[in-house]
């Protein structure tokens, strides 16, 4: 627990709106302004606090006693009338409720189960990379990353994931966690035709035998998970693990193509690709921001944070904080930032699926480094702007084989 309140209010960060579309597309000036002004600032237009320095983000994520997840990890306080929605029993829960559910899911996502998917992931990676080598020029999102992740993750999790549906629903979900703005409204409109699919996408009848989803339903049957919770848990896993891994791999390919020296290192030693995902998501954190809410007036970093006023932790800013990293804007495969960057969160809610995301990425990226000699941009990468998630829509690439 922290000291008694000092009464000092964090300074207002004015003149830059993190949820403006142009800022969402290029958030780095906002990140710098946020980090430079103070350890905690106030975003007046949204009536929320914001934190962009690595050390303070970590401290807050490690302090669930004072900074709760139960009012939602997006900008809206989901306990408020008009904003109410049923919270995820994992991401948007505090102990003791969180502890029990997390233990049940951790038991299912055992290292043994995850290792059992390696053959499938490697086979699929080999097929996809082979196809790209035949083409020589391709869109890494549409032709490589999306089909690969949608195939391997949907098999592991046990839920069918058609591309158009995933994209439309992902855009809805990762805009919904931001303010009611033009990005949010556009995404809601595009998601409309897919809402019925979304509602039934994780129903028990459709899930694959032996998959994560089936095991969660079985855990509910056995009473290891409270009755009625399995479906929303499967939804949390699918929602947490699909778009984020696609975004993270996108960041890796985007930067590899723009860093010939790094690609040469990977070609010489494909094992370097085992930690490439961590460097990719440090550079372009898929979850740019996650929220917490002070449970009481809390004294933090010299300021008093008011009870119930939401606090945005800008993971993307912390992951390029020069107080923490040397050459923070450089994509460096030898950096190996795993366990230090905050793109998977940290503390009690640290990403429960990170080993799956790492295995998916390792298989695809090591295969790429074994068979490709050079990779370069074949055009500009295009953004898919979302309030919360940083993801590219298109990454045109040109490759030469080894
Ligand atoms: C590159 C890919 C991924 C990134 C960047 C990512 C990022 C994150 C972050 C930042 C959190 C912390 C949220 C918080 O503290 O409020 C988190 C939690 C979580 N992630 Fe991931 N994730 C990824 C992949 C996955 C995968 C593949 C799965 C599913 C198998 C998954 C499922 C979850 C779940 C269920 C939680 C909530 C855990 C809890 O609250 O105890 N994630 N993830």
TL;DR?
This protein is of the alpha+beta class and 402 residues long. The protein is 45% helix and 11% strand.
The CATH architecture category equals Orthogonal Bundle
- Count of folded domains: 1
Q: How is the biggest beta sheet arranged?
A: 5 strands, mixed
Low-confidence stretches: none
Share of helix among residues? 40-55%
Shape: globular
Number of helices: 17
By CATH, the topology is Cytochrome p450
Strand content: 5-15%
Give the termini distance in whole angstroms. Answer: 57 Å
Query: How many E strands?
Result: 12
List SSEs in N-to-C order.
HHEEHEHHHEHHHHHHHHHEEEEHHEEEE
CATH top level assignment: Mainly Alpha
- Give the radius of gyration: 21 Å
Family: Belongs to the cytochrome P450 family.
Pfam families: p450
Protein name: Cytochrome P450
Keywords: Heme, Iron, Metal-binding, Monooxygenase, Oxidoreductase
Which helices and strands, and how do they pair?
Elements: H1 21-25, H2 28-37, E1 41-43, E2 48-51, H3 54-61, E3 67-68, H4 97-108, H5 111-115, H6 118-135, E4 137-139, H7 140-157, H8 163-176, H9 182-191, H10 195-200, H11 212-221, H12 230-241, H13 243-257, H14 260-268, H15 276-283, E5 289-294, E6 298-300, E7 303-305, E8 311-314, H16 315-318, H17 354-371, E9 372-377, E10 382-383, E11 392-394, E12 396-401
Parallel strand pairs: 2-8
Antiparallel strand pairs: 1-2, 3-5, 4-12, 5-8, 6-7, 9-12, 10-11
The structure holds protoporphyrin IX containing FE.
The site of protoporphyrin IX containing FE (HEM) has 25 residues, from helix 12, helix 13 and helix 17.
């Amino acid at each position: 627990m922290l000291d008694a309140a000092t009464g000092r209010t964090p300074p207002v960060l004015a003149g830059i709106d993190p949820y403006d579309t142009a800022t969402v597309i290029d958030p780095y000036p906002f990140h710098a302004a946020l980090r430079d002004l103070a350890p905690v600032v106030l975003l007046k237009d949204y009536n929320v606090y914001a934190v962009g320095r690595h050390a303070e983000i970590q401290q807050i994520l490690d302090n669930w006693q004072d900074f709760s997840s139960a009012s939602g990890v997006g900008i809206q306080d989901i306990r408020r009338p008009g904003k109410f929605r049923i919270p995820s029993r994992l991401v948007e829960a505090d102990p003791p409720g969180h502890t029990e559910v997390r233990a049940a899911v951790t038991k299912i996502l055992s290292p043994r189960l995850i290792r059992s998917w390696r053959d499938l992931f490697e086979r699929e990676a080999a097929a996809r990379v082979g196809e790209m080598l035949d083409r020589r020029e391709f869109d890494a999102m549409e032709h490589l990353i999306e089909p690969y992740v949608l195939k391997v993750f949907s098999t592991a999790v046990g839920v069918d994931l058609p591309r158009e549906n995933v994209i439309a629903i992902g855009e809805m979900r990762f805009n919904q966690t931001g303010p009611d703005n033009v990005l949010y409204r556009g995404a809601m409109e595009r998601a409309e035709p897919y809402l019925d699919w979304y509602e039934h996408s994780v129903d028990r009848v459709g899930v694959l035998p032996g998959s994560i989803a089936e095991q969660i339903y079985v855990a509910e049957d056995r009473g290891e998970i409270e009755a009625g919770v399995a479906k929303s848990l499967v939804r949390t896993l699918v929602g947490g693990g699909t778009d984020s891994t696609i975004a993270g791999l996108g960041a890796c390919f985007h930067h590899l193509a723009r860093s010939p020296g790094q690609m040469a290192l990977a070609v010489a030693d494909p094992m370097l690709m085992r930690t490439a995902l961590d460097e990719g998501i440090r550079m372009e954190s898929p979850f740019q921001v996650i929220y917490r809410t002070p449970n009481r007036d809390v004294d933090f970093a010299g300021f008093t944070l008011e009870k119930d006023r939401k606090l945005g932790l800008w993971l993307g800013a912390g992951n390029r904080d020069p107080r923490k990293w040397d050459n923070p804007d450089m994509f460096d495969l030898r950096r190996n930032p795993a366990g230090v960057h905050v793109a998977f969160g940290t503390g009690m809610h640290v990403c429960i699926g990170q080993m799956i995301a790492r295995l998916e990425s390792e298989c695809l990226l090591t295969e790429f480094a074994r068979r490709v000699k050079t990779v370069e941009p074949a055009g500009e990468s295009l953004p898919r702007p979302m309030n919360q998630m940083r993801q590219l829509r298109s990454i045109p690439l040109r490759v030469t084989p080894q």
